[in-house]
Write a structure and sequence with these properties.
142 residues; mainly alpha
């Protein structure tokens, strides 16, 4: 998944779920648990991103980077800052990818849940219709 965005990975599944192309049989409480888990995951990822930003923006790293003759300390601090949020393959962007994947998973789970709700509503309407047809006053038997 490193080369693909979350939307490319989960987007087709979400579309299939919207059209009924994905089927599952689960307890509705599971969807609540999944939704809360995705909310928690996304919140945790945002908290970690904030920590990464704080680290990356830290003025003093205590490695001697402010002493001109210690160019290696300055280089290390510069690399750490880049790895935090300013360079290629940095932690912030990597975490953002995880956040987007969690968001897509949550959308997938919600879409599947909505599809189940639609199915259950349709089933309930049909059941009610059949139940009414069974009543003696509507010409049905018991």
């Amino acid at each position: 998944m490193a080369d693909e965005s979350a939307a490319q990975v989960f987007g087709p599944m979400i579309e299939k779920a919207k059209t009924g192309g994905v089927s599952l049989k689960v307890d509705p409480a599971v969807f609540l648990t999944l939704d809360k888990a995705m909310d928690r995951r996304m919140s945790e990822l945002r908290q970690i991103q904030a920590i990464v930003n704080t680290i990356g923006e830290s003025q003093s790293w205590g490695l001697g980077e402010s002493a001109p003759p210690l160019t290696s300390a300055q280089t290390i601090v510069q690399r750490f800052r880049q790895k935090a949020s300013n360079g290629a393959n940095n932690a912030f962007d990597t975490l953002e990818g995880h956040y987007k994947a969690a968001e897509q998973l949550q959308t997938l789970f919600r879409t599947i849940r909505e599809r189940f709700e639609q199915t259950d509503q349709a089933f309930a309407a049909r059941f009610h219709e059949l139940k009414l047809a069974q009543r003696p006053e509507h010409g049905g038997g018991r």
